[in-house]
Amino acid sequence: MSLINTEVKPFKATAYLNGEFVDITEADMQGQWSIFFFYPADFTFVCPTELGDLADNYAEFKKLGVEIYSVSTDTHFTHKAWHDSSDTIGKLQYPMIADPTLRISRNFEVLIEEAGLAERGTFVVDPDGKIQIVEINAGNIGRNAEELLRKVKAAQYVRANPNEVCPAKWKEGEETLAPSLDLVGKI
């Protein structure tokens, strides 16, 4: 079953954020755009490159009113240790959610049960708490924050302009389409 347009299920977790442990629930994302960025594990290889890429683009996401939540099945203590020991992870300013109970990973259907790890899953959630974008990558394929930014802008655009759609490779400021009988068979 697709998670598109479903509401994020309730959860409560501890995250590491800016030198502190903080509690986070699904209620924290209400009224804003959110990205849940699942990754397999701290202290690995592809994961820090992805989290660093998000950190390098974090200001752009914030300008769009988007909060990023990175999530792995590690503990919040492990998140802190990784943050303190890695220059790449040390620049993160968004919450690093700990999911040692595996509940959040199960809720988003990214848990690899036999390994106790999360798939490389990306979920864009609208201000109503509904999932608008789902992307799952194999463990050895890293994601691109600039492409994610483009997708977020498209999701925000169609939310604000419900009679329009964004075609392939659409970028902010480019033409959109207004679906109608006149367009059928002409694209």
From TrEMBL:
<dbReference type="InterPro" id="IPR036249">
    <property type="entry name" value="Thioredoxin-like_sf"/>
</dbReference>
<keyword id="KW-0963">Cytoplasm</keyword>
<dbReference type="InterPro" id="IPR013766">
    <property type="entry name" value="Thioredoxin_domain"/>
</dbReference>
<dbReference type="InterPro" id="IPR024706">
    <property type="entry name" value="Peroxiredoxin_AhpC-typ"/>
</dbReference>
<keyword id="KW-0676">Redox-active center</keyword>
<keyword id="KW-1015">Disulfide bond</keyword>
<dbReference type="GO" id="GO:0102039">
    <property type="term" value="F:NADH-dependent peroxiredoxin activity"/>
</dbReference>
<feature type="domain" description="Thioredoxin">
    <location>
        <begin position="2"/>
        <end position="157"/>
    </location>
</feature>
<keyword id="KW-0049">Antioxidant</keyword>
<dbReference type="InterPro" id="IPR000866">
    <property type="entry name" value="AhpC/TSA"/>
</dbReference>
<keyword id="KW-0560">Oxidoreductase</keyword>
<dbReference type="Pfam" id="PF10417">
    <property type="entry name" value="1-cysPrx_C"/>
</dbReference>
<comment type="similarity">
    <text>Belongs to the peroxiredoxin family. AhpC/Prx1 subfamily.</text>
</comment>
<dbReference type="InterPro" id="IPR019479">
    <property type="entry name" value="Peroxiredoxin_C"/>
</dbReference>
<dbReference type="InterPro" id="IPR050217">
    <property type="entry name" value="Peroxiredoxin"/>
</dbReference>
<dbReference type="InterPro" id="IPR017559">
    <property type="entry name" value="AhpC"/>
</dbReference>
<comment type="subunit">
    <text>Homodimer; disulfide-linked, upon oxidation. 5 homodimers assemble to form a ring-like decamer.</text>
</comment>
<keyword id="KW-0575">Peroxidase</keyword>
<protein>
    <recommendedName>
        <fullName>Alkyl hydroperoxide reductase C</fullName>
        <ecNumber>1.11.1.26</ecNumber>
    </recommendedName>
</protein>
<comment type="function">
    <text>Thiol-specific peroxidase that catalyzes the reduction of hydrogen peroxide and organic hydroperoxides to water and alcohols, respectively. Plays a role in cell protection against oxidative stress by detoxifying peroxides.</text>
</comment>
<dbReference type="Pfam" id="PF00578">
    <property type="entry name" value="AhpC-TSA"/>
</dbReference>
